[in-house]
Amino acid sequence: MYDVIIVGAGPAGITAGIYAKRANLNTIIFEKETIGGQISSSPLVENFPGFHSISGANIANNLYEQAESLGIPIEIEEVLNIIPGKPNKVVTDCGEYETKTVIIATGSKYRLLGLPNEIDLIGKGIHFCTSCDGAFFKDKDIAIIGGGNTAVTNAIYMANIASKVYLINIGDRLTCEKTLEDKVKKLDNVDIILNTGVKEILGSEELEGIILTNDQKLNISGMFISIGMSAQTDMIKDTIELNEQKYVVSDDCSTNKDGIFVAGDCRTKDVRQLTTAVADGTIAAISAMKYIENNK
Ligand SMILES: Cc1cc2nc3c(=O)[nH]c(=O)nc-3n(C[C@H](O)[C@H](O)[C@H](O)COP(=O)(O)OP(=O)(O)OC[C@H]3O[C@@H](n4cnc5c(N)ncnc54)[C@H](O)[C@@H]3O)c2cc1C
Predict the structure, then answer these.
(1) β pairing state of 88-92 and 74-76
(2) pTM
(3) Cβ(203)–Cβ(209) below 8 Å
(4) How confident is the model at residue 12, as a pLDDT?
(5) Of 65, 82, 98, 140, whose CB neighbour count within 10 A is largest?
(6) Ligand 1 site: residues with CB under 6 angstroms?
């Protein structure tokens, strides 16, 4: 039986693994896709303390090497279910495992527009996080797609950096809070385009522009898609408490089930960043250690 099974080898999961393994707990990490998680697709990260400027691929590689050097097994298996109990059971596409504790660190995914080129140009003009990548578009023309709180907050933030911001929303009005709406409408360099979506993404090596559903062509060098995120928690929807957006409900990395903890982007929180993910990984692992100690 394992002491700790960690689901997801992103920054949160690997951090949890480092703490659990160094506390001499019998630990394994299951990862379904990419060791290092979503940051692997970022060309440049400039807000991770200790690294002035580093590619996401290098962060992912460093995380992997650190886990490997500590002897933390990372198995490429997709977790299909977590069955709470004493012991907890983790079901993957390869087998079923018993464990005293589980740390869910499955992250979240940005919602996409579903257009050709879109995935290929992520990190090459198509971005999601303005506080991560907004600075790359100083004095350039950019578009924000969406009309909710995140999109409008991103437009206000980018109006201070970019020369021109197009805020493009498929609906006939912005759906953000009124105060945000009032603020964005006062900004001279923000053009709000309603009742309009993106029809085509231009560029093969990097983003060169977009064509809107009203056939208007925008020569932009950056596009931030701000139409929401979803947590990767489908497999636990019947066993662990999730909120309406499918995030695991948790203020402190515990869940509604004893011995099952959560870390990183897949839990309810306001800020989803590398720094908050690794902080959660630490808290979840230390909570798992205490749980094991108290339930001997
Ligand atoms: C393009 C891009 C650029 C970014 N830039 C920055 C930046 O500059 N600075 C910053 O701070 N943050 C940035 N972020 C955000 C940052 O990457 C995330 O906040 C962070 O990766 C969250 O870590 P996590 O471990 O919680 O989740 P993730 O990194 O999403 O890792 C979760 C892992 O769990 C795996 N998984 C999911 N479901 C299962 C399952 N059922 N079984 C097994 N494995 C599973 C996934 O495959 C994934 O590898 C960026 C994100 C993107 C997409």
Answers:
(1) unpaired
(2) 0.86
(3) yes
(4) 98
(5) 82
(6) 7-13, 30-34, 37-39, 41-42, 45, 47, 78-79, 105-107, 122-123, 128-129, 132, 232, 235, 264-265, 272-275, 277
Q: Return the closest-CA partner of residue 229 out of 134, 118, 151, 123.
A: 151
Cα separation, 125 vs 121, in Å, equals 6
| Alpha-carbon distances of 145 from 78, 191, 248, 263, 264, rounded to whole Å | 32, 12, 26, 29, 25
Tokens of 268: 């309810």
In the chain the domains, ranked by start, together with CATH numbers, are 2-109+229-294 (3.50.50.60), 126-225 (3.50.50.60)
Cα of 179 from ligand 1 centre, angstroms: 31
Residue 12: CB partners within 8 Å, gap ≥ 6?
37, 105, 107, 263, 264, 265, 277, 278, 280, 281, 284
* pLDDT at residue number 101: 98
Q: Please tell me the predicted confidence (pLDDT) of residue 197.
A: 97
Residues 31 and 6: beta-carbon distance below 8 Å: no
Task: Give the pLDDT confidence score for residue 41 in this predicted structure.
Answer: 79
* Pairwise CA distance, residues 151 & 158, whole Å: 10
User: pLDDT tens across 216-256, in order?
Assistant: 999 999 999 999 888 999 999 999 999 998 999 999 999 99
Q: How much of the chain exceeds pLDDT 90, in percent?
A: 92
pLDDT at res. 182: 97
Residues in the chain: 296
Q: Which residues of 117-140 are buried (b: 16+ CB within 10 A; e: fewer)?
A: bbeebbbebbbbbbebbbebbeee
pLDDT confidence of residue 140: 98
52 burial (CB, 10 Å; 0-12 / 13-18 / 19+) is exposed
CB-count exposure of residue 190 (10 Å: 0-12, 13-18, 19+): buried
Low-confidence ranges of the chain (pLDDT < 70): none
